[in-house]
Amino acid sequence: MAGGVVTPDDVERAAGLIAPYVRRTPTIEHGPLVLKLELLQHAGSFKTRGAFNRVLGEPSIPDAGLIAASGGNHGAALSYVGGRLGVATEIFVPSTSPDVKRRNIERFGATAYVVDGYYDDAQAAADARQRETGALQIHPYDHPATVAGQGTMARELDQQVAAIDTIVVAAGGGGFVAGQAAWFGDRVRVVSAEPETSQCLRAARMAGEPVDVDVSGVAADSLGAKRLGAVPWAIVQRFVDEAVVVTDDDIRAAQRELWAEFRLVVEPGGAAAFAALRSGAYRPGSDERVVVAVCGSNCDPSTIIDAS
Predict the structure, then answer these.
(1) End-to-end CA distance of the chain, in Å?
(2) Where residue 186 sits, what CATH number does that domain have?
(3) Distance CA 157, CA 247 (A)
């Protein structure tokens, strides 16, 4: 990971390091698409891969343990990591995140603090607490080890699905899509999908560098980063081929279809990539082999089932 650039070799090493701790998630066919069910990962999202790689790669952990800010999924993943490794963990969660995500964090043993506002407000509170305690802060997406850990999903896909042409991945702060791009490079077309109300990756591509964006919408708890991470940007600018956006209505419709067809409870951010295909935001060619990452399950099931 020289200079912060994540390579396939880094992803390969991450896969070996985290193998005893993560699930190999399944794939299923959906018409011409392949769905990668990363929502079945421990703690309900892909975040567990990056969190384990980041923490296991540290030579030592401070007595104060681990600390992070999170819209919910990274917090649950880090709480799970702390529980498995026997390390105290504190998570700062914005008040705009669903209560189910706070409960999930606490279920795995971490202490959760709710901060008024959005993710950046929770990050500021976590920064202040870290200065007090000396805990090891684990950023949700802007670290090479985290990105390499997320890339292990792509490595797994290469073993499961033959002749992939395109992968469509939801993007928040960019760590997940950057991990897939770091593994695939130019071999596979990488498409990011963001809510039109929270699109820091697309904005960075248009500006030629990460810039601040406004954040709102149904998926803001998981895809609501105000700025693309610097580490993801180093990969995104080279290997993400297209950045598309979807509406909140597109996301809700995708959630309902994933429930109706597969009985999958998928949170808004986890359904964004599927929404890109379903809505036509991304239109594959007739013979294009497309994998869609379904990457998060941490939501109240009634928000989908009662609306179906």
Answers:
(1) 45
(2) 3.40.50.1100
(3) 28
